[in-house]
Amino acid sequence: MSDKNEKMELWDIYTKERLKTGKLQKRGEKLSDDEYHLVIHVCIFNNKNQLLIQQRQPFKSGWPNMWDLSVGGSAIAGESSSQAAERELAEELGLKMDLSDVLPKFTTTFRNGFDDFYIVKNDVDLSHIKLQKEEVQAVRWADKEEVLKMQQEGTFIPYWFLDKLFELDSWYNTFRNEDSAIKITYASNENLSSWMSMVEIVKWNFPGLETEEKVIEYKNTVKKNIDRGTAICALFGNMVVGILLFSIKHNMLCCMAVHPEFRRKHIASKMVKVMLDRMDKNRPIVVETFREEDEKGTAPRAFYKKAGFEEGELCFFENEYPEQRFYLRRW
C-alpha cells in the first residue's frame, strides 16, 4: 500500500487473545498497550528453494532501500489474514493467488500486533511481475547463502528467523508426517500458551468460544484441568497439536480437537486411549457433539461411532447450541 493510501488506512483492533474489539484505528495513530493490529508477510519460494525478495523504495519511511521478504503489510479493516496476504501480493507484485485455504506457517508477535507469515511454493515468472512503484523498486530470486550474506552486510531487513526460513517448510512437512515424533502426554502449565494458540486456529468450529470473555473462561478451565490431571495433549516438539479435556467425576469427554495440519495421524484415538485408562469402566463414557444435520458434525460423529460410541439423546450446549450425546459402554 502506498504512503498516500496509508494515511487513510484503517486497522481492526484486536485483543491479546486475537479477538476483534470492534474498534478501528487510523494507521500511524498510537495504539494503547492492550490494543493490537494484524500484519502479514508472504514468502514465495521456487522449486530451487530460492526466495523471491523485494527491494523497498529509498523514500519509504521504514527500512528504506533495504531488501525484504516477498511481500508484507498491515491488514486493513474487514480483512482476514489470508485476504490481506492476497491483496498485498496483488498490490506490490501484481500477482493473483488464492490463499483462502492456506494457513500461516507461523506467527510472531510484536509490541502492538501479530505478524502472520505465509510460505508459498510458486515458480513465479519475474517478467510477469508488475511492481508497485510507490513500494518496490526491484525483485529477484535469492538462495539462503545470498540472503544471509545480505543480512550480514546490512542490506536485508534483520528478521531473527532468516537462517531457519529456508528449511522451515520442508522440516515442517517432514516432521508432521512422522507419527513417532508426536507424543501424547498429560498437559502441564508450560503447554498452556501453545494449547491456546491451537484453540485460536480451531475455535470457529466450537460453540462457546465466540467472545473474548468465553476464551478467557475456557483458558481458566484448561488451567483447572491441568492442575487436576484431566488435560491431555499431543506434542509436536513443544507445539501442542492435539487437545483433550475430560471429567472423571462425570465420566465425560468434555473437549477434543486436533490441529488441521496434523489430522489423519490417529492423534484423537491415541488421546482417547490415554483418557480411557482413567475412566470408570462400570459407567458409560459420555461425550456431547454436533447433531447429524449440523455440517460441523460429519467428522466428529464418524470418529465417535468408529471408536464404539453409540448415539444418545439430543441436548443443548449451555442451553443454546443443539448437540447430541454419545455413549461408550465397555461392559
UniProtKB/TrEMBL annotation:
The keyword Chaperone does not apply. The keyword Lipid metabolism does not apply. This is Acetyltransferase (GNAT) family protein. It comes from Lacrimispora xylanisolvens. Signal peptide: none annotated. Keywords: Hydrolase, Membrane, Transferase, Transmembrane, Transmembrane helix. It holds the Pfam family Acetyltransf_7. The chain crosses the membrane at residues 229-248. Residues 182-331 form the N-acetyltransferase domain. Gene3D superfamilies: 3.40.630.30, Nucleoside Triphosphate Pyrophosphohydrolase. Residues 35-164 form the Nudix hydrolase domain. Coiled coil: none annotated. InterPro entries: Acyl_CoA_acyltransferase, GNAT_dom, NUDIX_hydrolase-like_dom_sf, NUDIX_hydrolase_CS, NUDIX_hydrolase_dom. It comes from the Bacteria. GO terms for molecular function: acyltransferase activity, transferring groups other than amino-acyl groups; hydrolase activity.
